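User: Can you predict the 3D structure for this chain?
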Amino acid sequence: MATILTYLKKHFSEDYKITTYLLFFLFIGILIFLNHTTNIPTLFFRQHQDSPYIYGYYFLFFGFAYYSTIIIIATTKSDFSFLKKLSFWLTSLFAILLVSIRFGFLNHYSWIQENIAPEKVEFYTKVIARSIRFIIFSIGILVFYKLIEKHNKNFYGFSIKDVKWKLYLLLLLIAFPFILFASYQPSFLRQYPSIGYTGTFINKWLALVIYEPTYLLDFISIEWFFRGFLILGMIKSLGSKAILPMVALYVFFHIGKPTGEIIGSAFGGYVLGVISMYSKSIIGGIVIHMGVAFLMDAMAIFQKIDSFF
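Assistant: Here is the predicted structure, written as structure tokens:
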């Protein structure tokens, strides 16, 4: 824990300004409140999922999250210098485009409907969708790396050098009681286990064996994108200012999830971003993220264990 506290203390000394943080948390707080009370963002995207403009809608949505935070930072800190850097615009615009493609690409749904037996559609949709999301983020980052940043030897944080494994396992242990408590909440059990309904064509335990690895694998690409690409790929342009815009995008990324999970994404994303920035590695974030996701599914399965037999 001392290592993380050291990272946080260092980041605060470099980045913290009260007006910046107040406006930032007011900004994402308003969004979370509106989502919780009206569910407007989720309803809007559901209504327009077949629209030819869906990618543009997502681009505006995620761009609003990222660049609103950039405006807050630039104005409250009176620092506009990074806006003149081509690397900032190339990386940020590509990142917003990539996350928009991840959410907007729904072509596989119609293929599944046309080629998979009706009783198998829901299960295969989940497995294929998770796999495609992993591919979109991973291929996108690799293409950008190959074209723009071949000189970056860190590869956006895929480094196991000096990784403090015991620290991240301790963090998972600390998180466990909160996950256990959440597992007794109706809203949590409506969302988890993430596999949802599998139908009767396949044994539920076999379905879990097939689905869970694809589900957990997706978190590798998520950490690579948010804590690797948007932090370690942005340090040269934003320095310590890279954290808050990433957190804003990460919060918007979770819209549609239970409100508690969205709030947790803000604080969890911030801490994981700081760890990534100062350790120059995303491995710890991957361990924590995959571990929390697995525990959430495991606790939900425990609560619904009778339905698995």
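Residues 2-308 form one domain. The chain has one domain: 2-308.
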